[in-house]
Structures are given as structure tokens and as C-alpha cells.
Specification:
By secondary structure, the chain is mainly alpha-helical. Helix content is about 80%, strand content about 0%. α2 runs antiparallel to α3 and α2 crosses α4. It is rod-shaped.
């Protein structure tokens, strides 16, 4: 006797609705968090570059453009945008 649910439907989570729903929920949350991280880092990076131009700090500008340090600059820039510029950063670049 053949099972009433096809193999494809079973694989896609129709046969086990709890597993399918939870997988979709976790996948959706993970995707949303990744997009929020990328968008937030880009906004922070833009803020970092604006601060570099505003302070006239050449090395701060280079730090924002230099490959992997751009991600760190983006996170610091987002922190600065949300909570204010850290004192140690002001002392470092001015």
C-alpha cells in the first residue's frame, strides 16, 4: 500500500508540520538577523566615513577602506551613531 503523502511533500515538511514550521521560523529569523547585520554594518560604515571626513583623520578614513577592518569600522560607526562617539576614539583621532 502506498503512503498518501508523496516523498517530495514529506521532504518539504508537509508530513511533519512541526518540523517544517520550526525550520521555516528558524530560517526566517536567521535570514532577518543576517540582513539586519549587513544593513546595520553598512550604515555604521557610512557614519564612520563621515566622521573620518568630519574629523579630518586620514588614517581613520584608510581604516574604513582597508578590507576586513571596514567591518570593524562599520560596527564602531554603528555604535557611535546609536550611543555616541567613544572617548577613546576621540582621543585617538583628534
Amino acid at each position: 500500500m502506498r503512503h498518501p503523502i508523496s516523498a517530495r511533500a514529506w521532504r518539504d515538511g508537509v508530513g511533519n508540520t512541526q518540523r517544517g514550521k520550526m525550520g521555516k521560523l528558524i530560517g526566517g529569523l536567521t535570514g532577518t538577523m543576517a540582513v539586519a547585520f549587513y544593513v546595520g554594518t553598512f550604515i555604521g560604515w557610512a557614519w564612520w566615513m563621515w566622521m573620518a571626513i568630519h574629523f579630518g583623520s586620514f588614517w581613520m578614513f584608510v581604516f574604513g577602506l582597508a578590507g576586513p577592518t571596514g567591518i570593524f569600522a562599520g560596527l564602531l560607526g554603528l555604535w557611535s551613531l546609536l550611543f555616541g562617539i567613544p572617548t577613546w576614539l576621540l582621543h585617538l583621532v583628534t
